[in-house]
Amino acid sequence: MNQTDLLKILEEIHDGRLSPAAAAERLKHLPFEDIGFAKVDHHRALRQGYAEVIFGKGKTPAQVAEIVRAMVTKRASRHNVLVTRADAKIFTAVKRVARQAKFHPLSGVITIRRNKEITGKGTILVVSAGTSDIPVAEEAVLTARMMGNRVEQLFDVGVAGIHRLLEHRRELTEARVIVCAAGMEGALPSVVGGLVGVPVIAVPTSTGYGASFGGVAALLGMLNSCASNVTVVNIDNGFGAACVASCINRL
After folding, report:
1. What is the rounded average pLDDT of the residues 80-100?
2. Structural element, H or E, at residue 65
3. How far apart, in Å, do the first and last CA atoms of the chain sit?
4. Which domains occur in the chain, in start order?
5. CA atoms within 13 A of residue 102's CA, in its CB half-sphere
6. What is the rounded distance in angstroms from the CA atom of residue 112 to the CA atom of residue 134?
7. Distance CA 251, CA 247 (A)
8. Residue 153 contacts residue 137 (beta carbons within 8 Å)
9. How do beta strands 109-112 and 81-84 pair?
10. How many Cβ atoms are within 10 Å of 150's Cβ, its own excluded?
11. Looking at residue 182, what is its pLDDT?
12. Lowest mean pLDDT among 12-16, 65-69, 147-151, 188-192
């Protein structure tokens, strides 16, 4: 349920095409629906501009599938459904309740695209330092697209071969928001930040050898960036970076 959905229901009541009782039936699960092991937040798109996203890790395939069922069976809403940190078993269960579901094994994301409306004002560019960072970057790409944004991607352009990045100055300067995923020492967001005048959301990844400490080295490096337009999310959190980028892109 988002603002457009709510206005449509009110217009149908006003025009006599929908009875108050039928409208109440559509809206009875707002603001959430209790399905026992989860309380599905059908009100989130109305409050925040995008629907609740399902974090698959730690949930059983059956639990994820039931949450998806609760989200896709509501006639009052046609929002996109996104599951992060999923696997093939979860996808098999989800596919039984949502035939249009698509699995992206590299990032572990399941998408159910039901609305292709673009609500973002500009383009979100997702950049990865290395090929090993692509799973996190892809999570950001898919999340931003499902939240109604135009998204471009630029992968494997890290500081070990900086000429690869400089080859794409046009894409960098045309973006309205940039998400930058990097492991190892996490230097790339600072470089990107120094080239553009837009927000750069840095995502430290757990890619690296021993002293990278599972992404902590990249996290600390990004937090200490001297580029003043760089902000940082948690390790491997491509989803969170895309959410923030989407909020910025709607302003």
Report:
1. 97
2. helix 61-72
3. 20
4. 3-11+20-112 (no CATH), 123-250 (3.40.50.1970)
5. 9
6. 21
7. 7
8. yes
9. antiparallel
10. 16
11. 98
12. 12-16
